[in-house]
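Help! Submission page says 'invalid entity' but I think these are all valid:
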Amino acid sequence: MQNALQIVYLIPLLPLIGFLINGLGRKYLPKPVIGVVGSGVILASFILSVWVFMQVKGMPVPYIASYFNFISVGDLKIPFAFQVDQLSSLFLLIITGVGFLIHVYSTSYMHEEKAEHFGRYFSYLNLFIFFMLLLVMGANYVIMFIGWEGVGLCSYLLIGYWFKKTEYNKAANKAFIMNRIGDLAFLIAIFWIISRVGNVNFSDVFAVANGEVEFRKFSATDITVITLLLFIGATGKSAQIPLYTWLPDAMAGPTPVSALIHAATMVTAGIYMIARSNVLYSMSHITMDIVAYTGLATALLAATIALKQNDIKKVLAYSTVSQLGFMFLALGTGAYVAAVFHVMTHAFFKALLFLGSGSVIHAMSGEQDIRNMGGLSKKLKITFWTFVIGCIAIAGIPPFSGFFSKDAILLSAFVKSPLLYGVALFTALLTAFYMFRLLFITFTGTFRGTHEQAHHLHESPAGMTLPLIILAILSIIGGFVGVPEVFMHGGDRLGQFLAPVIKPNEMHHVSHSTEYLLMGLSTALVLVMIAAAWFKFRNYQRKEETGFGKVLENKWYVDELYDKIIVQPLHQLGGFFKSVFEVSVIDTLVNGVGKAVNYGSRQLRLLQSGQVGSYVLLMVLSMIVIFAVQFFIRK
Amino acid sequence: MPINNYILLSIALFCIGIVGVLTRRNAIIIFMCIELMLNAVNLLLVAFSKMHARAALLAGDVNGTAGTDGQLFVFFIMVVAAAEVSVGLAIIVMMYRNIHSVDVNFLNRLKH
């Protein structure tokens, strides 16, 4: 076969087959088979994705593979179709590539699970990859929505993977419910689009938006409302204010899940969706501003919370929320390519950091509190060095990948307004500070855990360190696909690659010297921050937080606030309905029907006397009545 | 003879039948009243049939078959009534054998 695009359906189909094999055979298959099947299908998808990636390079129009009509009602036809273009093929690579590494890592990380649960885990993971691929490959909003819901489901299943713990189930519920709020907005946006365009294919929607179709067009209000609704959908999935609180709680799932779903792929679905709809977003300045400021506020808020967290995964979770905020800032300032670029580099270094934290947790026999760690660098050499690389990458020191993507975002923020730039830069500095705080508390100083833990400390097996090394290499070199123009003419290869999908924006009015100055400034300040973290946390001693630190440690009390203003009133309303409304209204109504029937039948029973004479009398009387009635009506 | 007289006679017979069924308790008398009602209807059918035939004759009916279907109905009713009588009397005989009475008010087992 010459053309990979003809078999593009295999890319999502293979993980689905893996899901079926692992899911149905989890009680019969031995663990090595499950691991090989689970990882193998993803590897096969990855190879196909690479092939597809080669083919789409420089392709001017998207390749659309339509298989059958998914919905056909009246004039509305929604095909089950895949769209392969530069944007989706890039996401295919990220999802299957990082996904494969995390599958391999999982075979080691989860090896203590029973075979049955091991199979369940891998089937969920494969199902997740399937839905994620559906999400990025869908050629219309409905297929995207199927994937969107599917990844939410898998996220729920995997957060609650250890379902015997009530807290974990609560975290899973929280994630699911928060996501549903966003999903509802997404769904309304789809209906809105259908009412204006008549179908939901990306190509048709964008054609209408560009005014290329007669008789159908969007008004300014339509555009604003649709983009805002889509954005609300994105805030749910991508953990932005106000729907971000589920993501830190989602760390209840196994660590590889946090790495794959809650850092590298699923949470970037919102960014993918907005980047995909860039035509619509570029037409609404109001939405763009809202996106930018929401992203910035989320980035700042999450970064401040991350400063004082003591759970290794919570720090990374808030860091993820903060980085996602950066991506939304990029989207809001029109730098779609920078956002996609940051999705990619973030997938590398955040997956690396999460897997590294998984390695640490593994070594510490399940301990997640960094106050009980310290001095781990001596025992966990590979984990330590890869973690360092991850921290440098996320902090944004050249030439690591995070520098290039974050610099692109900061630059676009600077072009939009210096205020945005200032806050974004401050957030970036906080990022460097809390990441290195985490690094130093965990890996340097003296060991603060129990004697037994110290005895058990060991480097993780090759199945876990190998993905770490590969991701570390990607974190180092991943940024070179988007080198800014000032360093190298034509260096922004990612932007050129994505040009058919995302029109290059023309707003770079910044002189080269300014650009150098901005880069130098951010790099220098980041280095200062790292030094500050080094002096402060090199020999960390446990102490209670006071004052403002306590507010940050308690996440600005946002969870408590939500509990007070939403959850508890809802509970009270529910209590009211349960104890008052149900008893007095519903019960009365339902019991009343029963009582009325009972009473009525008791009365009617008297008619059945068994006396033939009375029956005949009744018959005659009623016939007389009928005749009389008919007689008068005829008149 | 005008048709009215027949109609009035039929109504009278029918009403006597109804009243008999409603007021009497003896099964045999109820039975007779039912027969009375049936025959009231028969009388009416024959009367209408004759009236119809005469009207058709005046209008120039060649075959002279108009109204015969009414008389056919009468025969049907007679046959049915005969069958009914045989079954009904058998029931009454059985009833008498069982409860030594032909009072229908004892027959209230339908209630249960």
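Support: the input was valid. A stray whitespace character was the problem, and the output above is from the cleaned input. The CA atoms of residues 105 and 111 of chain B lie 12 Å apart.
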